[in-house]
């Protein structure tokens, strides 16, 4: 376990700088001067208030600019932000904090708004913590929020202020009908379609910054066979001798299928995964019971343990280049045993396994092939027995082939 943690720490330190990527971009300062630079692209989840940049690839110096001095910046034709002072509704959408007031709670704030659609009709996005808001502007008019607000009518009943539908109907008067508006959700995908349709109808030109995110591959299904190196020991605390049985290390095969969900921010560096896996451990040993007594005898002790493990975990990637990346992950393993038992002298004990944790480090090539070294904490296979304690521990070498 300590070796895995040490290895993961060294990997993290070694490759941390390798994944900090400065990409072609620009910014416009308060004087209107445009500078072509390399911007550190963090693929911001929440709208930023500052950013780091370098003047060129050879520069060792990293500089920083903030919303105070910058009125616009963009990264590699992929993201574009503009500074605006807007009236923004700060009402919470969370049930425990939702108000009984239908009207929005507007507060003036100066923020970087993220472009979704840049055209005759602009669509912007703002996110901070749990707050998500959309804004719009037509023909360079004042930027206003598209209003959507859930609120309590009674303690058990929720109403929705959907003023955004009326705002769109009043301001986007080309190519959009009432039926579309009535079906319109306060979501990026829905609003993007409406604004693109309007821009196409009105003058035919618009830049869709959201298309870069729509093209992202955010789900992977991977077949993951591997080899387990497992050990097991059990102790009966009832007897004064505190008898201990160690069954030693066994090598076995495991096979799993992993579903990985890439989180759509921070340049695809974070992911959640679930990996149902079949594994087994089968062994036996000869022991001497009642040693030194007249009725001393030989006994065969055996373990036949099969289960479906379901690791639920989080993974972080360290990008080396466009095709190679290192990853570390941690998972909570839910174990479902399958007709498993232990024959101990003249008794048959039914295995009842507990859950445990696993930690791993691995390498992924071309989003297709991978290898991972994983170790797990001890798992108790006899949690239903008061007098027995046990330790089942596994380290694994896992190979992966991504189907899609």
From TrEMBL:
Keywords: Signal. Residues 1-18 form the signal peptide. This is tRNA modification GTPase. It comes from Chryseobacterium mucoviscidosis.
């Amino acid at each position: 376990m300590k070796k895995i943690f040490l290895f993961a720490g060294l990997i993290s330190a070694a490759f941390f700088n390798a994944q900090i990527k400065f990409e072609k971009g620009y910014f416009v300062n308060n004087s209107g001067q445009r500078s072509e630079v390399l911007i550190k692209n963090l693929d911001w989840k929440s709208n930023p208030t500052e950013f780091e940049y370098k003047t060129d690839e050879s520069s060792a110096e990293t500089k920083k600019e903030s919303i105070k001095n910058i009125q616009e910046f963009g990264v590699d034709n992929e993201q574009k932000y503009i500074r605006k002072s807007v009236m923004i509704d700060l009402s919470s959408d969370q049930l425990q904090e939702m108000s009984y007031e239908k009207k929005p709670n507007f507060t003036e704030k100066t923020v970087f708004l993220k472009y979704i659609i840049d055209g005759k009709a602009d669509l912007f996005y703002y996110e901070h913590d749990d707050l998500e808001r959309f804004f719009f502007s037509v023909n360079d008019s004042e930027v206003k929020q598209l209003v959507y607000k859930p609120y309590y009518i009674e303690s058990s009943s929720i109403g929705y202020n959907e003023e955004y539908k009326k705002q769109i109907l009043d301001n986007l008067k080309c190519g959009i009908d009432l039926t579309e508006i009535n079906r319109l959700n306060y979501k990026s995908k829905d609003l993007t379609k409406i604004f693109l349709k309007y821009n196409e109808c009105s003058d035919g030109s618009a830049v869709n910054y959201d298309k870069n995110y729509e093209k992202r591959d955010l789900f992977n299904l991977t077949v993951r066979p591997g080899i387990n190196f497992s050990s097991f020991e059990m102790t009966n605390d009832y007897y004064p001798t505190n008898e201990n049985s160690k069954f030693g290390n066994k090598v076995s095969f495991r096979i799993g299928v992993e579903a990985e969900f890439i989180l759509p921010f921070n340049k695809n560096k974070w992911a959640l995964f679930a990996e149902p896996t079949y594994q087994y451990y089968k062994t036996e040993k000869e022991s001497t019971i009642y040693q030194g007594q007249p009725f001393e005898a030989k006994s065969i002790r055996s373990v036949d343990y099969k289960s479906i493990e379901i690791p639920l975990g989080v993974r972080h990637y360290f990008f080396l280049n466009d095709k190679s990346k290192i990853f570390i992950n941690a998972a909570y393993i839910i174990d479902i045993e399958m007709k498993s038992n232990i024959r101990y002298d003249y008794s048959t004990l039914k295995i009842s396994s507990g859950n445990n944790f696993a930690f791993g480090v691995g390498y992924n090539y071309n989003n297709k092939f991978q290898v991972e070294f994983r170790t797990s904490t001890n798992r108790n296979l006899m949690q239903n027995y008061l007098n027995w304690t046990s330790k089942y521990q596994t380290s694994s070498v896992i190979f992966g082939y991504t189907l899609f």
